[in-house]
Amino acid sequence: MTESAKIIDFQSLTEKIGRFNLSNKTCLIPEMNRIGTHLLAAVFRGFGIHAKVMDTYKGLDLGKEYTSGKECYPCQITMGDILHFMKEEAKRLKDTFDPEDYIYFMPEADGPCRFGMYNKYQRIVLDSFPELSRLKIGSLTTRDGYSLAGIIDDSRVRDLRKMSYFSLVVGDILDRLLWRIRPYEKKAGLTDDFIERAMHVMEGAFERFGPAKDFNSVFKQLEAVIKEGKTIIDPGIPPKPLIGIVGEIYLRTHVHANQDVIRVLERYGAEVVNASIAEWVNYTSYDRFREAKIGFRLGLRQFRLGLMKAYLKDIIGFGGDLFYQEFRQKKTYKRIRSLIDLTEDHQVGHLEKTLIEKDLFNFDVGTEACLSIAGIVEYAREGYNGVVNVYPFTCMPSTTTSAVVRPLMSELGIPYLDTPYDSSFQPGREAAIRTFMYQANQHFKRHGRKEKK
Ligand code: SF4
């Protein structure tokens, strides 16, 4: 490679990855948790952004072809999703296909694990195709708490952020509704059909009411959905063992990637609650807020006014985001829980206190391990009958989680299962889940289960 080619490659990483204005572009969103991703796209569309959720998992062979196998599994899957989409789009549009008409949305996280590298790696792969080198990667980052500044007109950014967050909370609620109803449905298949319809109804609500920030109308629609969902429950089916899921956000919410682990658990008699998406968004705001407070205290000790001023600005900004998010989330759950007993999230500050109290891990280390370890302790406290940790094979924070909580769970006598996934099908997986569910059933018989909080 010549010296000038090297320079161009590095420029590509800075110039073709970032926050780009989305007007007149199609924003391509990779599907992670199906419902939340579609609701988010609906909010974007309501605000005039042409957003599209790409089919997922259809391009896995391409994803594998253009990765070495050492990357995290979500990186392989999303690599395949974008390559497959662009290939199909080129076929469909023929001469009028122009990669510059699209922005591929791939957020990133700051910190010690590899999520910050996905978009860089994918940039290099896209650049290796002459026609795809012009496709830009729109990236939001945890560094600024997933700020949306710059992607649409400044005057609408705050509203877009508020509605986007709300759509994630509603997506979590629809997921939890699915897991609450399906194990008790009157007839097999009713819940899946219902939830697919419900997702489209809520997409319509977000597109229609989102731009005017009409939370109340979205709420009303959601309440109607929940009332309908409740009619699917057969009251004659007794409560089942309650299983909590933690783990890596993509794997635990992407049903193809995790080989539909929740459905498999249900098949063996579980009712399942998975950690939410909003929890991760709250964590990123909380972590930035926490860092700003630490930085401010340092500035104060060293009496550096400039530093204090910069951190104070962050304290107000990230603290405001966190306050708003927790307020919106709490309000939404309060209204919904008057209709059905869905599990509510813990505040991230509470989870940090749990870790400090148990001296198990520390927020200074960061990553999803903070949420997973504290989440497991909370599941145990609340009388869950078992916990499953779902993650990509070799995932660093989830492996840390496993190392920390295994001895604890064995001491507490609560069944615990690690389920690492890659694209292979392990013959013993179902047997492991069946054995775990046998233990969870025994736990349930001995201890019953407490009411969900
Ligand atoms: S959380 Fe796990 S899967 Fe995700 S980037 Fe980090 S190491 Fe990879």
How does this structure look, described?
It is a single chain. The protein has 453 residues and is of the alpha/beta class. 58% of the residues lie in helices and 9% in strands. Helix 2 links the parallel strand 2 and strand 3. It is globular, with a radius of gyration of 22 Å. A 5-stranded parallel beta sheet has the order 1-5-4-2-3. Strands 7-6-8-9 form a 4-stranded parallel beta sheet, with helices on both faces. Helix 14 runs parallel beside helix 15. The protein folds into 3 domains: 142 residues, no CATH class; 83 residues; 146 residues, Rossmann fold (3-Layer(aba) Sandwich), CATH 3.40.50.11900. The longest helix has 33 residues. The chain contains 16 helices and 9 strands. The structure holds iron/sulfur cluster (SF4). The site of iron/sulfur cluster has 11 residues, from helix 15.
How are the SSEs placed, and which strands pair?
Elements: H1 3-15, E1 17-18, E2 26-30, H2 34-46, E3 50-54, H3 60-65, H4 73-93, E4 102-105, H5 115-127, E5 136-138, H6 154-181, H7 190-209, H8 215-230, E6 242-247, H9 249-253, H10 261-267, E7 271-274, H11 277-302, H12 305-337, H13 348-358, H14 369-381, E8 386-392, H15 396-412, E9 416-421, H16 429-447
Parallel strand pairs: 1-5, 2-3, 2-4, 4-5, 6-7, 6-8, 8-9
Bound molecules: iron/sulfur cluster.
